[in-house]
Amino acid sequence: MRLEEIQQAAVCLFAQKGYAATGIRELGRAVGINSATLYHYAGSKEEVLTGIMRSCLEQLLRSALDATSTSADPGMQLARLVRTHVGLCALNPLTAKVTDQEIRALRSHDHEALIGLRDDYESIFAEVIERGARTGVFHLTDLRITRLALLEMCNGVANWYRPDGRLDITEVQDQFVELVCRLVGMPPVSREESGELPAPIQLASEPITDYPHGTEAAE
Questions:
Q1: What pLDDT was estimated at residue 209?
Q2: Of 51, 99, 112, 202, which has the most beta carbons under 10 Å away?
Q3: DSSP 3-state of 199
Q4: 3-state secondary structure of 204
Q5: Are the C-beta atoms of 6 and 38 separated by less than 8 Å?
Q6: How is 114-161 classified by DSSP, letter by letter?
Q7: Between the CA of residue 120 and those of 58, 167, 194, what are the distances in Å?
Q8: CA distance 161 to 158
Q9: Does pTM top 0.85 for this prediction?
């Protein structure tokens, strides 16, 4: 039994039922162990959730820093940020959904630390959007609303993307970059123009075969 197995079971349960409605015994049953054994690997249910969310946010932050390091052009940076975010959400839908929706469930110390990571990540988008608007690359009336709408749109991929759908991850990334370019009022940026990016990483907490139930494949 490894911590990753516990995290994968937790991600499935938290995404389906919610963190608050999932009991520690239920989590133990999902991985075939009792509560005492589970506590050997994780001190509490909250510790499991914190580990899942921290890994996801840290990976998003690393990807964002990498995405913005190869060009100072805000249009290219935004296109690369969108590609990395969409890629992570498409490949890790349950982990991304839990990370996005359950941060409010954490207590003071963990909550503050993870909010800090999330703010660090979103500040990269905010800085790129601000600089793009200031230099005339983007044409916007409200920078904050634009950032919130953009991130909400990208986060939504976790709710509907299916690997057996009509579009693969790369094609979904292309579609989202085109939509975001239109959103900020700039010409579309092609994959070739924005440059190569590392392939999305499957997080240790993401179940390999389980995807959100009741969703439709990308059409």
A1: 60
A2: 99
A3: coil
A4: coil
A5: yes
A6: HHHHHHHHHHHHHHHHHHHHHTTSS--S-HHHHHHHHHHHHHTHHHH-
A7: 10, 31, 23
A8: 6
A9: yes
Identify residue 178 by its one-letter amino acid code. E
Tokens for 69? 């390091």
In one letter, which amino acid is 74? Answer: P
Contact of 158 with 97, CB cutoff 8 Å: yes
CA nearest 197: which of 90, 65, 105? 65
Of 123, 118, 120, 124, the residue nearest 104 (C-alpha): 118
Residue with tokens 């992570």: 88
Length of the chain: 219
Record the tokens describing residue 180, joined without a space. Answer: 């975001």
Q: Give the Cβ contact number of residue 169 at 10 Å.
A: 21
In the structure encoding, which two tokens stand for residue 14, read together?
Answer: 């938290």
Each residue's pLDDT tens digit in the chain (219 positions)?
588 999 999 999 999 999 999 998 899 899 888 878 888 888 888 999 999 999 999 999 999 999 999 999 999 999 999 999 999 999 999 999 999 999 888 887 888 999 999 999 999 999 999 999 999 999 999 999 999 999 999 999 999 999 999 999 999 999 999 999 999 999 999 999 988 898 999 999 999 764 443 333 444
**Residue in the structure block whose two tokens are 């197995």:** 5
